[in-house]
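Re: that backbone. Tokens:
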């Protein structure tokens, strides 16, 4: 149900009184248990405090309105709220949820300002945000971090427990210390990965007994189909990587581990009893020469077309005004049949254009910089979220969204789809290929606007890195 403007304001003006000292007038009938020495008073208040009692005085209190000299407004806060300028609260004193003027509803607390500064579009939404849109953001920094043995690494995950809307994909952010292993394992879900830092040796075999071993480095991708057993070992400099699973309910804690396989079978069946499950544990350095770990059976090695890795770090980016894209999908990485992804760089001020996907939800990971996106969802709902490095975003199919670089460094993010081809619908191209008269009748736009619409997909649109100017397309740099 939607609150009307007036009932919403009414709700906000009901002052909480829970922190005020309550007048006491005798104990209630409940007997307190004996307290420690030095205790005084009683645990519960008197019955006379029950409400609907005109004899209880309302204490006089100071105004809860924060006067203008006790806070600062960030550039852009006074602009028309329909413009929805990005509000950078990084350095303003005592930030307040004001848009479209210099006064408005202040926030006397309780609050943790750091959240407000990081999420200014939730705290001070653009005037165009409306209705209910499910939460689209999860920072890995709020996930429980599970540590491996003896400082060997850690992993933290995001699945439907953290982000209920994210039903099609889940993510894990994992760190392996120098030479550490992610134990030999397999799982129900397919595992797509992007190396974030350092390098690792990965090894696996398939049902045919064909083996695979490869070294991958920051920017490279791997994929292990559901059920294919694999191992991951960091080299001497350690590593960090991102895993994306094709099941929103996937949990890293539910992987099938080789050590448990032995533990959970009768000892008479498994001659050798392994200790406890290892998960992430220290290892001996991998030999530099990969040939030494190339174990090949009679079935030979995995055919090239079925390779479990792709050296995306060496793919030349596709350059467009405002940024670059690297697309990887089954057209070039066939084993990952349902994973289509784009690693995208957006220059300051530029924006991944307004688009949507037709067949898949989008799971997004932010590698660098800061961004905001608005999810537009029919009917009549939209909400804007802010992101920084290490955050996960999720946009259900076919909701429209953009990703705008709100910072001063290049924005780098990964879009992952469950689709056999990376594709999207570009609003620019859609309108550019719609007969002009139709667009004009719908949007009441002039010919000059129509002439700017492209017939090809821009993917990224350049813009003014000054987030508080209203000359959005200008580029003062
Ligand atoms: C990798 O880690 C090193 C050491 O902390 C850091 O300096 C570097 O910026 C990281 N690289 C990336 C791509 O994050
Ligand atoms: C592993 O050995 C096989 C058979 O000799 C060879 O075809 C393959 O290229 C080797 N792989 C690596 C990563 O060295
Ligand atoms: C906000 O402003 C700070 C400096 O005050 C700047 O470093 C940062 O890049 C800006 N953008 C974001 C999203 O924080
Ligand atoms: C950004 O634009 C605003 C409004 O035009 C202007 O006041 C401000 O000085 C500009 N900031 C920078 C860093 O150019
Ligand atoms: C916006 O900025 C561009 C590039 O600096 C400039 O050419 C243009 O005149 C500006 N437009 C307005 C309305 O100021």
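Recovered sequence:
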């Amino acid at each position: 149900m939607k609150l009307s403007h007036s009932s919403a304001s009414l709700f906000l003006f009901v002052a909480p009184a829970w922190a005020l000292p309550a007048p006491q007038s005798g104990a209630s009938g409940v007997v307190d248990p004996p307290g420690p020495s030095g205790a005084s008073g009683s645990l519960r208040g008197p019955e006379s405090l029950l409400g609907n009692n005109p004899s209880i005085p309302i204490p006089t209190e100071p105004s809860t309105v924060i006067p203008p000299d006790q806070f600062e407004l960030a550039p852009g806060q006074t602009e028309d709220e329909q413009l929805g300028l990005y509000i950078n609260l990084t350095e303003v004193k005592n930030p307040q949820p004001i848009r479209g003027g210099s006064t408005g509803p202040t926030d006397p607390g309780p609050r943790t300002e750091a959240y407000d500064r990081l999420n200014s579009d939730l705290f001070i939404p653009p005037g165009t945000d409306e209705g209910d849109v499910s939460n689209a953001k999860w920072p890995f920094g709020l996930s429980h971090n599970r540590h491996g043995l003896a400082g060997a690494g850690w992993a933290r995950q995001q699945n439907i427990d953290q982000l209920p809307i994210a039903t099609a994909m889940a993510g894990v952010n994992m760190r392996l210390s120098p030479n550490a292993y992610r134990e030999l394992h397999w799982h129900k879900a397919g595992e797509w990965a992007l190396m974030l830092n350092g390098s690792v040796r990965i090894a696996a075999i398939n049902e045919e007994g064909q083996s695979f071993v490869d070294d991958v480095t920051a920017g490279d991708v791997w994929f292990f189909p559901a059920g294919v057993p694999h191992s991951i070992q960091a080299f001497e400099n350690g590593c960090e990587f991102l895993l994306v699973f094709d099941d929103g309910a996937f949990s890293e804690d539910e992987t099938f581990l080789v050590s448990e396989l032995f533990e959970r079978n009768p000892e008479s069946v498994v001659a050798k009893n392994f200790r406890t499950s290892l998960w992430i544990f220290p290892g001996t350095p991998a030999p530099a020469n990969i040939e030494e770990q190339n174990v090949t059976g009679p079935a030979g090695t995995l055919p090239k077309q079925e390779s479990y890795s792709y050296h995306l770090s060496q793919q030349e980016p596709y350059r467009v005004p405002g940024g670059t894209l690297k697309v990887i999908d089954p057209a070039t990485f066939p084993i990952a049949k349902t994973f289509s992804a784009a690693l995208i760089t957006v220059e300051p001020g530029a924006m991944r254009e307004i688009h949507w996907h037709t067949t898949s939800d989008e799971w997004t990971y932010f590698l660098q910089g800061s961004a905001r996106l608005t999810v537009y969802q029919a009917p009549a709902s939209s909400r804007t979220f802010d992101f920084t490095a290490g955050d996960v975003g999720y946009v259900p199919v076919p909701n429209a969204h953009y990703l705008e670089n709100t910072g001063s460094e290049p924005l780098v993010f990964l879009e992952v789809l469950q689709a056999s081809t990376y594709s999207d619908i570009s609003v620019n191209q859609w309108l550019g290929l719609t007969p002009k008269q139709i667009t004009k009748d719908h949007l009441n736009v002039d010919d000059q606007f129509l002439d700017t619409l492209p017939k090809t997909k821009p993917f990224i649109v350049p813009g003014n890195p000054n987030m508080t100017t209203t000359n959005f397309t200008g580029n003062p740099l």
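Residues 213-214, 290-291, 294, 296, 301 surround 2-acetamido-2-deoxy-beta-D-glucopyranose (ligand 2) (CB under 6 Å). The CA atoms of residues 135 and 163 lie 7 Å apart.
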